[in-house]
Write a structure and sequence with these properties.
The chain has three domains: 38-257 and 486-493, Aldehyde Dehydrogenase, Chain A, domain 1 (3-Layer(aba) Sandwich), CATH 3.40.605; 260-418 and 420-464, Aldehyde Dehydrogenase, Chain A, domain 2; 517-666, Hotdog Thioesterase (Thiol Ester Dehydrase, Chain A). 33% of the residues lie in helices and 24% in strands. It is built from 20 helices and 29 strands. Strand 27 (622-634) and strand 28 (639-649) form a beta hairpin. Helix 3 packs across helix 4, helix 4 packs parallel to helix 5 (161-173) and helix 9 packs across helix 10 (307-319). The structure holds NADP nicotinamide-adenine-dinucleotide phosphate. NADP nicotinamide-adenine-dinucleotide phosphate binds next to helix 7.
């Protein structure tokens, strides 16, 4: 029998006499045990005093690189996780969602961390806010990691993905984690955790693990800690309403259960590809993971006239499900996690049966041993008056078909779930997609629209993606996870900082306009990446713009817009005093003013951000550019990115344009990536 250990303050702790049993979903036998009393205060101290400081000493990019290494390490060692995953009733495909899906989620965060976060310790949220007349006192929002611990309480259905989708943004933020998985699948979570922690890729204290109950942990949390909960609405309510957590204002993110809906568009009649797509998506959501997915389709909304065809087609599709031993490759639907879960689902079917008629499935188990169950399809003819079908989550292979009259009715029914993780609409008509989205968006964390154009590449109604927000309002818990860098922000504090540009630049690890500059001693394009300093600046000589320049540029590029060519027409335009130079002419001349023509450290100009033309330039005006190093980010072993603030002024020193210029600049000496 497996002894599932906790990992507390760098020690592995075996189960004690009070350990809870873990059973195989396939045979019902006890296969493991987990749980022992833990010194949870010592775990918190270890996270706060050892893990947190070590993580915060790293930059976002350092942590992103380690995250990538960790994901690749898991990938290389994932095989034993599959063997364990089968014991939870999961098929190979279910396990792929959990194990490989979790690893991919981590890889996406690692990549986004390096692309979208700075190689620094502070994240700047938004632009500098001008709050004083002369710019000597400004405002800037910054985000810094919370110095406490992130505590996860996870549901049983995705023991690996559920841990990794939380761990990736937490570690990227620089916050240590204490992970408490659901006990019934803790053996899978522990095996994945062990691979990660034994890799030594993250510093000590960055992650700890609780097998079994969490003891007094939640009562020891403080304002700088965070709880990320995934599970049922009842448990979430019980935990989040703890007076201690409320008094301390501990961040509490809840991902709860959800009565997700899928709407068949009125245009998607049985002769269309959308109808078949709808049936396949619905069948997949019912059978994948034996329906134990928080995002599964629980309510199938179809136009009144299409109820019978949908019942027939979906029943036929569900009849194809091969239920059985999940280790067999031909099995398409495994078991529920336990007999207890099976009994729970059967009890809920009874409740649904008071409002809906079962049209597919039965209470009898398809196999004698284990927690197997047939798919269950219900038809609720009067969803307007029904209650349970919109409120009771049977966390198994269960869904209810219900008719709608028109799109406002479909939206109203979808919203009767009281807030859900995802709703889908299968339609080829953009006006249907738009009406449904406007009618339901506020009630759902994600809207999935699919049709013949997108079906080949679509990711599935029930698949949360690391790039997109996962979570929903109301019944779904009111939480938000993932969503790319948004998910990292849950573990950071946003703070408004006021001060002079010099102070804000120092705090934000970025040169900000208005902060002191240092005149470059040599042309900055001749300096290697590591030699360039924030605030190092070059002021070019001036160049006079002539009418001939404007006309030449107009004919050369084909941009003969009247504002550049016709004095009277330009004057009549409220923006221009008369004929003016093209904005792109100014950019081109600016490049001509600051460029260093010979081969050197600057390898390429890779982009231009936030371009604003502030004042028109007429023939006779002169233009000069000021180029200042704003931020530096290492990219590869041989070069890094330098962001320059560019200011274009006229002969009156008035600002003509500003922008951020991106260049890749070589290192003088090879550097670690
Ligand atoms: P659950 O019974 O609510 O348990 C969730 C977690 O809470 C488990 O780790 C459980 O630990 C823990 N827990 C229970 N009582 C606790 C207490 N007093 N103190 C500390 N922790 C406590 O949910 P589940 O049965 O595992 O999962 C199924 C539910 O999760 C479904 O309703 C499903 O919709 C929902 N879910 C939601 C999402 C989402 O992202 N929104 C994802 C997956 C699942 P033990 O196992 O040790 O009791």
């Amino acid at each position: 029998m497996l002894q599932i250990q906790s990992f507390a303050a760098e020690n592995w702790i075996s189960p004690s006499k009070e350990a809870r049993p873990i059973h195989s979903a396939i045979t019902g036998e006890q296969i493991a045990q987990a749980g022992s009393p833990l010194d949870t205060q010592a775990m918190l101290d270890h996270a706060r005093n050892v893990g947190g400081p070590a993580l915060r000493a790293l930059t976002f990019h350092d942590r992103a690189r380690r995250l990538k290494a960790l994901a690749l390490h898991l990938k290389a060692h994932k095989k034993p996780l599959y063997a364990l995953s089968y014991t939870t009733g999961a098929t190979h495909a279910d396990s792929q969602i959990d194990i490989d899906g979790g690893i991919t989620t981590m890889l996406v965060f690692a990549s986004k961390g390096r692309r979208e976060l700075p190689d620094a310790h502070v994240y700047l949220d938004g632009e500098l806010e001008q709050i004083s007349r002369h710019g000597s006192f400004m405002g800037q929002h910054i985000c810094t990691p919370i110095p406490g611990a992130a505590v996860y309480i996870n549901a049983y259905n995705f023991p690996v993905w559920g841990m990794l989708e939380k761990l990736a943004p937490t570690l990227l933020a620089g916050v240590p984690a204490i992970i408490k998985p659901a006990t019934s699948t803790a053996h899978v979570a522990e095996a994945a955790f062990r691979i990660m922690v034994e890799s030594g890729i993250f510093p000590e204290g960055a992650m700890q693990f609780i097998a079994g109950g969490s003891g007094g942990l939640l009562g020891q949390l403080e304002a700088q800690d965070a709880v990320a909960f995934t599970g049922s609405a009842d448990t979430a309510l019980m935990l989040r309403s703890s007076p201690h957590l409320l008094r301390q204002s501990v961040r509490f993110t809840a991902e709860q259960d959800s009565l997700n809906a899928s709407i068949l568009g009125p245009d998607a009649t049985p002769d269309t590809p959308e109808f078949d797509l709808f049936i396949s998506e619905a069948a997949r959501e019912i059978t994948t993971k034996a329906g134990q997915k928080c995002t599964a389709i629980r309510r199938i909304l179809t136009p009144e006239a299409l109820v019978e065809p949908v019942i027939d087609a979906l029943s036929a599709k569900l009849a194809e499900a091969k239920i059985g031993d999940p280790t067999e490759r031909e099995t398409t639907m495994g078991a529920l996690v336990s007999q207890g879960q099976r009994s729970d689902v059967l009890a809920r079917l009874k409740t649904l049966g008071t409002e809906a008629r079962r049209v597919f499935g039965s209470d009898s188990p398809p196999l004698e041993q284990g927690a197997f169950m047939t798919p269950q399809l219900f038809h609720c003819a009067d969803p307007g008056s029904a209650k349970a079908v919109h409120e009771v989550e049977a966390f198994g292979p269960v869904s209810t078909i219900m008719p709608y009259r028109d799109l406002p009715h479909a939206a109203a029914l979808a919203n009767r779930g009281g807030g859900s993780l995802v709703a889908s609409v299968i339609t080829h008509d953009p006006s249907v997609a738009s009406d449904v989205a406007m009618g339901i968006a506020a009630y759902h964390g994600r809207i999935y629209v699919n049709d013949r154009d997108s079906m080949a590449e679509s990711t599935g109604h029930g698949s949360p993606l690391p790039h997109l927000v996962h979570g929903g309002p109301g019944r779904a818990g009111g939480g938000e996870e993932m969503g790319g860098i948004r998910g990292v922000m849950h573990y950071m504090q946003r703070t408004a900082v006021q001060g002079s540009p010099r102070m804000l630049s120092a705090i934000g690890e970025t040169w900000l306009p208005g902060a002191p500059i240092s005149e470059a001693k040599a042309h900055p394009f001749r300096r290697h990446f590591e030699a360039l300093e924030l605030g190092e600046s070059l002021l070019t000589k001036a160049r006079k713009i002539t009418l001939a320049d404007i006309e030449h540029f107009a004919h050369f590029t084909g941009d003969t817009f009247y504002a550049h060519m016709d004095e009277a027409a330009a004057k009549a335009n409220p923006f221009f005093p008369g004929r003016v130079a093209h904005g792109y002419l100014l950019l081109s001349f600016a490049a001509g003013l600051f460029v260093e023509p010979n081969p050197g450290p600057v390898l390429a100009n890779t982009g231009l951000n936030r371009l604003v033309f502030e004042k028109p330039v007429s023939a006779g005006d002169s233009l000069r550019a000021r180029l200042t190093v704003k931020r530096k980010t290492k990219r590869t072993e041989t070069y890094g990115e330098v962001r320059w603030h560019v200011l274009l002024t006229n002969q009156e020193e008035e600002t003509v344009a500003t922008y951020e210029l991106l260049t890749m600049v070589a290192y003088g000496q090879r550097q670690a990536p």
